[in-house]
Amino acid sequence: MHMARLIENNGPLAGASVIVTRPAATSGPLRRRIRALGGVAIGLPGSVLRAAPDRAAIRAALVAARSADVAIFVSPAAVKFAFAAHPKLRFARATQVCAVGAATARALHRHGIRDAAWPRDRQDSEGLLALPALQSLRGRRVVLIGAPGGRELLTQALRKRRAQLTRIDVYHREAPRYSTRQLAALEKAPAPLLLLVSSAEALANLHATLTLHLFARLAAGEIVVSSERLAAIARDSLFANVHVAASAAPADLLTTACAALALHRL
After folding, report:
1. What CA–CA distance (Å, rounded) separates 89 from 77?
2. How far apart are the C-alpha atoms of 215 and 12, rounded to whole Å?
3. Which of 37, 150, 187, 195 satisfies CB 3.0 to 4.6 Å to 223 for a cystine?
4. pLDDT of residue 29
5. Closest to 69 (Cα-Cα) out of 33, 99, 95, 40
6. Does the pLDDT at position 196 exceed 80?
7. Mean pLDDT of the region 231-241
8. What mean pLDDT comes out for the span 83-93?
9. Please, are residues 173 and 49 in contact by the beta-carbon 8 Å criterion?
């Protein structure tokens, strides 16, 4: 038997349908890891990412941000769309570049920014805000590069710390429109189902977009979320089998997914 097929049949996710809610453009590595663990990866993006419409204005804002005291990238998508608008983007030596987590830091590294600070223990807004570089911000110029919407914790905390804050929204999120093929894949997906969610907006979009029957099918399965905050939202949405990962990092989501499946099979 071919080695890839052997892994597929015997991995810790063997036989499971794993629903990936990350945007299609950023879900490739996660889906490959699921397949390597023996699971079947089913893409059901919780949102669609689009570049900000006024590219010239975004580029001008990024040029102005080069001399900021602190530049914060909130996601790998923020890196992708920022460098799409300004491929030669660089920051002054005195600028401290920060990333919300390892994946964002790796994305920056691929674009030549190799000294970004990022939280090792908790890769989310709370972890980011605990970085030493973000403690004493009174009067300092801080640029926050990302998208509108989502959690406002970062914006509120940075303003509370008296930073001179500028937001540069290089992309935005739209609600998904699922194709007949995507819906059929969910309908026919063999149980057990494991849903991976790292965004409250994605979960809300699934609830609003899917038929009651299909959403109920997801809710009857296992859901892996990236925070206690999302766990509470999932329970409010009638998910009974909620598992909390250490972070939104693919490795943490999949470690928890494997543990959830093992419990399911007891």
Report:
1. 15
2. 25
3. 195
4. 86
5. 95
6. yes
7. 95
8. 95
9. yes
